[in-house]
Amino acid sequence: MDMSNKRTKKRFLRTRKQREQFFSATMLFPALLFLIVLIGYPLVTVLVDAFHNVNLLNNSAQPFVGLENFKKVLSDPKFVPALQHTLFYTFFSVVGEYILGLTSAILLNKKVKGRAFFRIAIFIPWLVPIIVAGMTWSWMLNPDFGIINYLLTHLGIIKEPINFLGDANYALQTVTFVNVWRSFPYYTISLLAALQAIPDDLYEASGIDGAGKFEQFVHITLPQLRSVSLVIVFMHIIWTAINFDFIWVLTQGGPNYATDTLPLMIYRYSMQKFDVGTASSLSTMMLLGMSLIFVFYYKIKTKISEETLN
To answer: For 32-70, how does the pLDDT look when each residue is reduced to its tens digit (9 = 90+)?
Structure first.
C-alpha cells in the first residue's frame, strides 16, 4: 500500500512538474516568436543576402556570388575613410561621455542645495528625441544665425563665424561633441547609482589611515565603479559604432563625406543604390566586429567576477 502511494505521489509530482513546464513554455512562446520574427529572420536574411547578388531594382536575379560583395566593399574608396570616421566617432564619444558622466556623477553625489533639481535637469539631453536634438543643434551651429557663433564672435574667441557642420575641418569633431552632450547623462545616472552604493565606511577607514581625496578616488571609487563602467562603456561602444540617425540628421555624412561612417555606407548601398547584397555584406562585417567586441567584454567581465569571488 505504501509503495502504491509513493508511486502515485511521484506520478502526481511528475505530472505537476510537466504542467508547470508546459505553462512556462506557453508564456514564453510569444516572446520567443517576437525574437524570431523581428530579430532572427532579418539576421538570417542579411547573412544570406551577403553572399548573393540582391538588388531591389532587379529582384528576380539573385545568384550566389560568394565573397564578391565583400570584395566590392573593401575596394570601395569610401570604405577606409568611413571606417576611420567610425573609429574616431566611437572612441572619442565614449571617452568624452565617460569623463563627463563620471565628473557630473561625482558632483551630483555631493550634498549641495538643489541637488534633486540638477539630477533631473542633467538627464534632459538623453530624453530629447534624436531628431529634435539634431535639428536644434543644427540651428544653434548655423554660421548665419546660430547662437553658438554669435556668442563666440561677441566674446572675441573667434573673429568670424565658423560653419561647424559644413566645414570638413570641423564637422566630425562637432558631431562627436554633440553626441557626447546627448549621451553623457546615461553615464551620469548609472555611475551616480553605483557611487551611492559605495559604503561610507571605506572612505572613513581610508581617511583614518591618512588617505587623501585623490587616493580615495583612485583606490576606492574607481575600483568600486569597475563593473558598472565596464557594462556601460562596452554597451555604448556598440551603440555608437552602429549609430546612424544622429549623424544623418546633423550632416547626412557630409560635407564631402567628412562625417561618413559605416552605418551611413550601409544606408547608401541599400536605399540609394538599392544594392542590398553589398549592404548586407558590410552589415555582416560590422556584426563580426561587434561580436569580437562582445567576446572581449565577456572575458573581462569573467575576470572581474573571478577576482571579486576570490
So the answer is: 888 888 888 888 899 999 999 988 887 666 788 889 999
**Could you tell me the end-to-end alpha-carbon distance of the chain, in angstroms, rounded to an integer?**
52
**R_g (Cα) of the chain, nearest Å:** 26
Task: Choose which CATH entry (3.40.50.1380, 1.10.3720.10, 3.30.70.580, 3.90.180.10) describes domain 79-259.
Answer: 1.10.3720.10
User: The C-alpha cell of 244 is what?
Assistant: 546612424
- Residue count of the chain: 310
CA diameter of the chain: 101
Domain ranges of the chain: 79-259
In this predicted model, what pLDDT tens digit does every residue of 100-115 receive, in sequence order? 999 999 988 887 777 7
**What does the angle CA 254 – CA 257 – CA 258 come to, to the nearest 5 degrees?**
80
CA dihedral angle for residue 202, residue 208, residue 213, residue 216, rounded to 10 degrees: -30
